[in-house]
Specification:
About 75% of the residues lie in helices and about 0% in strands. It has about 230 residues and is mainly α. The longest helix is centred in the last third of the chain and has 24 residues. It is globular, with a radius of gyration of 18 Å. It comes from Levilactobacillus tujiorum.
């Protein structure tokens, strides 16, 4: 029995959601390559890249699929490296199911923000990855007294600031998507709570949920009206 509990604990600690997401994205990238290349606009549109005109025509699923697509080898390489290292830590903190919900909702949040504020075709897991950064910000705000969390939060805050500054001056970067994912991840983390680490105020969780849902609905409707 003790050995079984040990193996179960090891399984619970293994970041299989993070690994699973990486595998899915690599497989999708391979399929795109076989279909004509991940930088081919037609291939990107076929696989579900964010394109405002098509979303406004009813293809709402393009707010979900872009987070599984990548444009070029460097894009997927950098995103998968970041997802692996950040995802492992967030999955360990929030648990497998909460991590997956956080990743997906933050990714959608970033794509909705991009839909509202950017007319460019876009794709990539960056919206969801910025959501994981947002979750770190939530951990830092809620559990600042924990020295490990405080140090990680400071590190990732500096990383986020540098990325945003880079986004401001680099062409072709979906800044709205990144900021939307960051904000959505921060709010989703509050909504879900972190029972593995400690208790989060019920009031904060309710407020975060209301702001998250209200914000997503407003952004979506605003984008549809453009």
């Amino acid at each position: 029995m003790a050995q079984f509990k040990y193996r179960l604990n090891r399984l619970n600690q293994y970041p299989f959601m993070t690994i699973g997401l990486i595998v899915i994205m690599v497989l999708v990238y391979g399929a795109m390559t076989l279909m004509g290349g991940s930088t081919n606009v037609n291939v990107l549109i076929t696989f579900g890249a964010k394109l405002n005109a098509l979303i406004q025509q009813g293809e709402w699923w393009r707010l979900v699929t872009p987070m599984f697509l990548h444009i070029g080898f460097t894009h997927i390489l950098m995103n998968m490296i970041t997802l692996y290292f950040v995802g492992m830590q967030i999955e360990a903190a929030f648990g497998h199911t909460r991590f997956l919900v956080l990743f997906l909702v933050a990714g959608v949040g970033g794509n909705v923000a991009s839909f509202c504020f950017s007319n460019s075709l876009s794709a990539g897991a960056s919206t969801a990855i910025f959501g994981l950064f947002g979750a770190f910000m939530m951990l830092g705000e809620s559990f600042w007294q924990n020295p490990v969390i405080r140090q990680l939060t400071q590190t990732f805050l500096a990383f986020v600031v540098m990325n945003i500054l880079f986004d401001l001056f680099a062409p072709g970067i979906d800044l709205a998507g990144h900021l939307g994912g960051l904000a959505a991840g921060f709010l989703v983390a509050y909504s879900l709570g972190v029972p593995r680490i400690g208790k989060v105020s019920t009031i904060k969780r309710v407020v975060a949920t209301i702001v998250l849902i209200g914000g997503l609905v407003w952004l979506y409707l605003h984008g549809m009206a453009q």
